[in-house]
Amino acid sequence: MPTSVLVTYGTTNGSTARIAEAVAEVLRKAGLTTDLLPAGSVLSVMPYDAVVLGGGLYAGRWHRDARRFLNRHGRQLAKRPVWLFSSGPLDASASERDIPPVFGVRRAMSRLDARGHVTFGGCLEDGAKGRIAQSIVRNGKGGDFRDFGAIEEWAGRIADELLPKGKED
Q: Hey, what's the torsion of the CAs at 100, 32, 146, 17, to 10 degrees?
């Protein structure tokens, strides 16, 4: 029976959603049954054998929808493999070094015995929602710092862990 994976995310301006899409695409290409859903719309994680959850970082905290997802589904998440990712640095730092998870994510990792976490660069461009986001863009501090090669590589490692040996393409 194929492994089913939920890739879910909390995002405000779509940058984290695009990262989640790239992760889901890699998992699908590897042969895993994968659903991609916003964290706020997930009713249950019971149908899934594994979960990848991402959240945008805002002022040192994970996106509200990602935090609420953890609170709603924590018991069931603890019974399956879970990977977490964050997105947010608006500079090249995430491509240059490993950025540890923020406190709340670190605590969730411990509680869930998560298989891993990575922080990817974020993206904030014209049209961003929110007064602070618009101010960041207006002051020239925005941009797209996502590294899709690194994202795909990380997702490939998840697929390798989930696929039974001998099933990789």
A: -100
Measured CA to CA, the distance from residue 47 to residue 121 in angstroms comes to: 31
Q: What is the pLDDT of residues 116-167, one digit of tens each?
A: 999 999 887 666 677 766 676 577 677 778 999 999 999 999 999 999 775 4
Higher pLDDT, 168 or 4: 4
Buried b (16+ CB within 10 A) or exposed e, 121-148: bbbbeeebeeeebeebbeeeebbebbbe
Yes or no: say if 66 and 93 are a contact pair by the CB < 8 Å rule. Answer: no
The two structure tokens encoding residue 114: 């998560």
Tokens 């994976």 belong to residue: 5
How many Å is the maximal CA-CA distance in the chain? 52
Helices (H), 91-165: 93-96, 103-112, 131-138, 148-162
Q: What is the CA radius of gyration of the chain?
A: 16
**For residue 119, what are the β-bridge partners?**
86
Give the CA-trace dihedral at 144, 94, 82, 25, to 10 degrees.
40
